[in-house]
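It is worth pausing here to work through a concrete case rather than discussing structure prediction in the abstract. The textbook approach is simple: state the sequence, then state the predicted structure, then interpret. We follow exactly that order.
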Amino acid sequence: MLTLQSGLGVLALLGLAFALSERHAAVSVRHAALGVGVTIALALLCLKVPPVSAFFALANAPFLAVADASRAGTAFVFGYLGGGPLPFDPKTPGSDFVLAFQALPIVLVTSVLTTVLFYWRILPVVVKGFSWVLERTMRIGGAAGLATAANIFVGMVEAPLFIRPYLSRLSRSELFLVMTGGMASIAGTVLVLYATILSGAVPDAAGQ
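Step two, the predicted structure:
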């Protein structure tokens, strides 16, 4: 029943998006079907094929390392407000998370790393790779595709920093795609927080 409810929800969202579209004639049924099909295929691969799950966990490790390193720095500077050991027992799970001292510094660190990677000419190569694949499958520009993919690992605030030099050149639809991808996904830092809170109730919370 829950699976049927989720499937009907996907169809309802697609219908709502089509109804609110400014140019119905420009909507490609083929691309919409391809996007839904790829989503279902990735879900099956990630949940039913252990080697694929292990691969994505490995790919996520560098981003989690950045988050852990940032949290170690904030804990050193701000103590338990920045994620250090609490001098008391929390009464509510997750109440020790302070956004300003634990999450926002990761945005600053990500901004610095993206600047360095652009200076070293590493991220431009990644953007070109995404552009080559996505333009031939979904007709999506590489910069918008990279920002959408980066949302999985960082979040909707940090992901546009990966394509900061390209933002001024994005079309209106590509900017909308970047914003939609951010609202439709969960940041890696928040994923770690949720997984930590739910680890006692949900086995393999991070994998789910």
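Step three, interpretation. The two ends are 19 Å apart (CA to CA). The chain has two domains: 1-48, 50-198.
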